[in-house]
Amino acid sequence: xxxxxxxxxxxxxxxxxxxxxxxxxxxxxxxxxxxxxxxxxxxxxxxxxxxxxxxxxxxxxxxxxxxxxxxxxxxxxxxxxxxxxxxxxxxxxxxxxxxxxxxxxxxxxxxxxxxxxxxxxxxxxxxxxxxxxxxxxxxxxx
Length: 142
Hints:
There is one protein chain. This protein is α+β, with helices and mostly antiparallel strands. Helix content is 29%, strand content 30%. It has a five-stranded antiparallel sheet, with helices on one face. The relative contact order is 0.19.
C-alpha cells in the first residue's frame, strides 16, 4: 500500500512507504525482488545500489519463506528516505524461529546491505522479520 502523495509534483517519484504481501512460497520471492529494484531505480539509486538491494531482498525473503507457517503471507515493507531504502520482510512462523547468523546467507545479507537486523516476536502468532537498509551510494553511514 502506498501512502497518498500530497502534491502533484511528488507523484512522479516513488512513494515513501510501500507494503507488499504475497504467499510465503519460493516462487513469490521474485515479486519482492522486482518491487525493491523498481522502487530504488525510481528513487534514482545508482545501478550498484539497486543491484545490491535486489540481491539482499532476494536473500532475506528466500531465508524467511522456508520458516513460514503454511498458507501465510510474506510481507515486505519498503520505506524510502533521502539517504536509504529500508526493507522489512516478515513471515508468521509455527514457533520461535531464528536464522543462523553464521550461515553463508547471513554473510551475503551483511555484505550487500548497510544494516541487517533480525526481529522476532513471541506469542501467538510468532513472527520473524529481517530488516535491512541500503543507502544511496555517496551518502554517509549514520
